[in-house]
Specification:
The structure holds two protein chains of two kinds.
Chain A lengths: L6 H35 L4 H5 L12 E6 L5 E6 L5 E6 L3 E6 L4 E7 L7 E4 L5 E5 L4 E6 L13 E5 L4 E6 L5 E6 L3 E6 L5 E6 L5 E8 L4 E7 L3 E6 L5 E6 L27 E6 L5 E6 L4 E5 L5 E5 L6 E6 L6 E5 L3 E5 L1
Antiparallel strand pairs in A: 1-24, 2-3, 3-4, 4-5, 6-7, 7-8, 8-9, 10-11, 11-12, 12-13, 14-15, 15-16, 16-17, 18-19, 19-20, 20-21, 22-23, 23-24
Chain B lengths: L19 H12 L9 E5 L2 E8 H12 L3 H14 L2 E3 L14 E4 L14 H14 L6 H13 L4 H16 L3 H18 L27 H16 L5 H15 L14 H4 L3 H5 L9 H7 L3 H6 L1 H14 L2 H15 L5 H13 L11 H10 L9 H20 L2 H9 L10 H9 L7 H17 L5 H11 L16
Classes of the chains: A mainly beta, B mainly alpha.
């Protein structure tokens, strides 16, 4: 025979569900108000303004260089400020610095972990940062001596409690911004490894980040598995803007002020793994999980070109610092530069 | 227990969302529509007739027509559907691609469609392999044999169960009619090619690492959850915003302004190094080149930020300010940047140094900021942090932007620079020349070397009498230059 439920617990349960219902109504009302405020200023759509803009011509973009040398999936890459060198990292734990123009390998580092998901080139061109399943971000000063073991001078800078998904130097070699599977982003001092600022607000793994230097403040955007893209103020650690998407994880972010358009085509059903804008912001390049690269006209919202070549997922894509080319890294173990 | 891999478990348990599956299923349903879908017919294969077979070319033309895409894109799309396991080839069953000919394919039964919900279990695979082994010994391929042995080892404790299941499935299959059995065998085999691919092949089921949070789980609705949402919504409401026409207008204007400077949209003069293998473009645009290009100078006029962020532009601006005796503003701004982005260890020193040089009463390079800002800054300097000079820096930046920048653009310094700026002619290489260029690719000086050179020169400068910085910088950049066939000879170096 079952004993009857304890009266106090029953009342508590009822109270809780009432409170929740009340809170939900309040929250929905507020959301409605926000929509109202937004609608007041929403006086025009992007495509309306874009009608007056001249269309783009035909594009001839080809693979100009193929970089072979990684033994497994390429996960991340970054350009050097000299516009021709790049650093790339792979699932097999190797980080390679290349002169993409000559396709020569200049430096190589073997990380103590596999799945090096993040790598970045320092602004001076004299160091690289990388990390992944080791939960850390380490900085390796580069050396001209081919025989020197770069791992000897490595600096462990960032420590997270889960995998490192992305890292980026700020305006100098002295500070690094990281994002992690533990749901946070953080700003670190490279020399001392000191945590300068942490950024909390994502409800799940943070997968990517991108810096947006502006005239007076400094912000960056991060995207995560919670379907949100958050814009942060580096100084205060506050989240100053948030965008929500409807479909899936945000694998890559590139700084823009608000969601004005969604780029989609019925024949494209696969997710984008990485994006970047061309120098003028008119073209948006996307690396997709169906091994292709789609090029979009940002203003008109149309797809201007589709590029083939990789034999597996495109995992990373970045436009070069002077906009003359973009580089893609793929799970087919190679990197390609396109122009 | 099956050991999947030797990665340390970081608490990752959930597969990432495979959002494409739902979309793919929609397409599949359309393709199978009896009226508007891909046309199918029974096909004879050896002695059996396979119902509802479709050809590769029919699939591709249907896709090309339905989505208005060209053949190459249709092939890629179709092959992805095969790679995911929604369509399978009847011949050459291990190659998961669509061939643009009369090769035969069939739609996979929904029972065997890939699903987000749960990963494909090794137990099922073991049963499948065991079943095939029972039917005919020695039929397993090499990699399947290896898998079978591995599973037999790791699942030893439930091997009786596996063999029993295999036998039961085998017995049940024998009771089916031959054509049905052949079809089912094909479907099942196709399923396992997708989910247990032979080594060295690319698998569409490969998704990388697991995630920490279950993508399908909704966040638990607690009072705290709503509390957070409401705080966030309140903040969003109070945030200042602009009209869409303003922000979109700014976006359109930006694209238009930079259109001529975007190498993907306009010609890169003299040519894009990646396309012609000629690096003149990079040589002409080195960070501290003596004579900039006309395009580069034009970019400085777009915004004050552009001028400052280009080292050559900043040098020009510095020269102008020197002539106006207001160089301390830029020097102060640079000091603030150094403080913000510099290493934490020297921060305190730097802040003090800046105070002594620019802010203190009677300072040698005293900057003119309003009383209020000065008060805040001096107070903040009692407990310095890297953003302590933000207010003062913003003030000075705005001052330079609204006042000095405009005057710079009208000044003789700028006009002189603009007049001397080069506009290289476009390269016109023949195919043979391009091939030659490709053979002549040369490495460039490592950034490490360049930084070393810069350091040495700066040290020399500090030691000797003041030297015009633009001359020193141009000498530096010349030592790093390559000789390029189409360049004008550089102006004689001044010593």
């Amino acid at each position: 025979m079952r004993s009857p439920p304890i009266p106090e617990m029953a009342t508590q349960e009822v109270q809780l569900s009432e409170t929740l219902a009340h809170l939900k109504t309040e929250s929905d009302t507020l959301k409605g108000k926000l929509e109202e405020e937004r609608a007041k200023l929403h006086d025009v759509e992007l495509h309306q303004v874009a009608e007056k803009v001249e269309g783009l011509g035909q594009f001839v973009m080809k693979t100009r260089r193929t970089l072979k040398g990684h033994g497994n999936k390429v996960l991340c890459m970054d350009w050097c400020k000299d516009k021709r060198r790049i650093v790339s990292s792979s699932q097999d734990g190797k980080v390679i610095v290349w002169d993409a123009f000559t396709t020569n390998k200049e430096h190589a580092v073997t990380m103590p972990c596999t799945w090096v998901m993040a790598c970045a080139y320092a602004p001076s061109g004299c160091a690289v940062a990388c990390g992944g399943l080791d939960n850390k971000c380490s900085v390796y000063p580069l050396s001209l001596d081919k025989n020197e073991n770069l791992a000897a001078k490595k600096k462990s800078v960032a420590m997270h409690t889960n995998y490192l998904s992305a890292c980026s130097f700020t305006n100098s070699d002295m500070q690094i911004l990281t994002s992690s599977g533990d749901g946070t982003c953080a700003l670190w001092d490279v020399e001392s490894g000191q945590l300068l600022q942490s950024f909390h607000g994502h409800a799940a793994d943070v997968l990517c980040l991108d810096l947006a230097p502006s005239e007076t403040g400094n912000t960056f955007v991060s995207g995560g598995c919670d379907k949100k893209a958050n814009v942060w103020d580096m100084r205060s650690g506050q989240c100053i803007q948030s965008f929500e998407t409807h479909e899936s994880d945000i694998n890559n972010s590139s700084e823009a002020d608000r969601e004005v358009a969604i780029y989609s085509k019925e024949s494209i059903i696969f997710g984008v793994s990485s994006v970047d804008f061309s120098l003028s912001g008119r073209l948006l390049f996307g690396g997709y999980n169906d091994y292709t690269i789609n090029v979009w006209d940002v203003l008109k919202g149309t797809r201007v070109s589709i590029l083939f070549g990789h034999e597996n997922r495109v995992s990373t894509l970045r436009v070069s610092p002077d906009g003359t080319a973009f580089c893609t890294g793929s799970w087919d173990h190679t990197l390609r530069t396109w122009a | 227990m099956t050991i999947r891999n030797t990665l340390r478990d970081h608490g990752q348990r959930y597969r990432p969302r495979i959002a494409c599956l739902k979309k793919a299923e929609k397409v599949l349903l359309e393709m199978q529509d009896p009226k508007t879908g891909v046309k199918s017919q029974p096909q004879r294969l050896v002695i059996t007739t396979i119902p509802h077979a479709i050809t590769g070319e029919d699939i591709l033309s249907w896709l090309a027509d339905r989505f208005q895409i060209d053949t190459q894109e249709a092939r890629n799309f179709g092959s992805m559907l095969v790679a995911l396991g929604y369509i399978y080839p009847l011949q050459d069953h291990k190659r998961l691609v669509i061939k643009p000919d009369a090769s035969l394919y069939r739609f996979q039964t929904p029972y065997f469609w890939p699903t987000q919900q749960w990963p494909v279990e090794d137990t099922d695979y073991a049963i499948y392999l065991a079943k095939r082994n029972i039917r005919k010994k020695g039929i397993l391929e090499l990699h399947e044999q290896e898998q079978y042995n591995r599973l037999h080892k790791w699942m030893n404790h439930k091997w009786d169960f596996i063999v029993m299941q295999a036998k039961e499935q085998y017995r049940a299959a024998k009771e089916r009619k031959k054509p049905d059995r052949v079809v089912f065998d094909c479907q099942e085999r196709a399923y396992w090619v997708v989910h247990r691919p032979p080594p060295g092949t690319v698998s569409a089921m490969d998704y990388g690492l697991d995630r920490r949070i279950d993508p399908n789980a909704d966040e638990e609705k607690t009072p705290d959850f709503y509390g957070r949402i409401m705080i966030f919504t309140q903040q969003s409401i109070m945030r200042p915003r602009v009209k869409s026409s303003v922000s979109i207008g700014a976006l359109v204007k930006y694209c238009a302004t930079y259109n001529g400077h975007d190498p993907f949209l306009s010609k890169c003069l003299p040519s894009n190094p990646w396309i012609t293998d000629d690096i003149t473009y990079w040589n002409l645009n080195m960070p501290n080149v003596e004579i900039p290009t006309k395009m580069r100078v034009e970019r400085w006029t777009f915004s004050f930020g552009e001028l400052l962020s280009d080292p050559r532009g900043r040098d020009d601006f510095r020269l102008f300010l020197k002539k106006e005796f207001s160089g301390e503003n830029l020097a102060f701004w640079e000091g603030c940047e150094d403080l913000k982005w510099g290493t934490a260890a020297t921060m305190r020193e730097k802040a003090e140094q800046i105070y002594k040089s620019f802010l203190a009463r009677g300072a040698p390079r005293w900057i003119n900021i309003d009383g209020k800002t000065m008060e805040i800054t001096v107070n903040g300097l009692k407990h310095p942090h890297r953003y302590v000079l933000d207010a003062a820096q913003t003030h000075i930046y705005m001052l330079m932007k609204k006042d000095s920048f405009g005057r710079y653009l009208k000044s003789p310094v700028f006009k002189d620079t603009l007049k001397k700026a080069v506009c290289p002619e476009e390269h016109k290489y023949s195919d043979a020349q391009l091939e030659q260029n490709a053979k002549n690719r040369r490495p460039s000086l490592s950034p490490i070397v360049l930084r070393q050179q810069e350091k040495e020169h700066r040290a020399k400068m500090a030691a000797n009498a003041p030297v015009d910085i633009t001359q020193v910088m141009s000498k530096l950049s010349k030592t790093g230059k390559e000789v390029s066939p189409c360049r004008r000879p550089p102006p004689p170096a001044k010593t």
